[in-house]
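Figure 3 (text version): structure tokens given as input.
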């Protein structure tokens, strides 16, 4: 992100939990993560970073503020496009507690008709 000022936030399904942990425990500097973990790179519309085909959703982002990077390693991102993969059988998301445990979600409520301000992000 420091070089390109853009990234993709990929949201994996609960079925990918073990793979997510394994991916997070190796470095992209010496590992081709797409190859090693058999991930499918898909072309994004607004950024150069690839989408991950196996994920439930991908969010293309651009850095809008980097003033806190040196002190907190914090980038402020703006979403420019969101993608969802409704073809995936597993649609539950997971949330990391920060200690190696995860919470799995299940129930979905549909409020798309209320998303008038952000419609351009989700088509």
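Below: residues designed for each position.
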């Amino acid at each position: 992100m420091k070089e390109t000022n853009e990234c993709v936030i990929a949201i994996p399904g609960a079925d990918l939990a073990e793979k997510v942990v394994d991916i997070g425990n190796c470095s992209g500097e010496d590992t081709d993560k797409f190859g090693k973990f058999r991930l499918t790179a898909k072309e994004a519309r607004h950024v150069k970073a690839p989408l991950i085909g196996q994920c439930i959703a991908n969010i293309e982002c651009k850095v809008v503020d980097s003033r806190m990077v040196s002190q907190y390693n914090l980038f402020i991102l703006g979403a420019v496009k969101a993608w969802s993969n409704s073809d995936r059988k597993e649609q539950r998301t997971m949330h990391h507690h920060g200690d190696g445990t995860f919470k799995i979600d299940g129930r979905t409520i549909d409020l798309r008709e209320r998303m008038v301000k952000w419609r351009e992000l989700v088509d």
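The longest helix spans residues 17-24.
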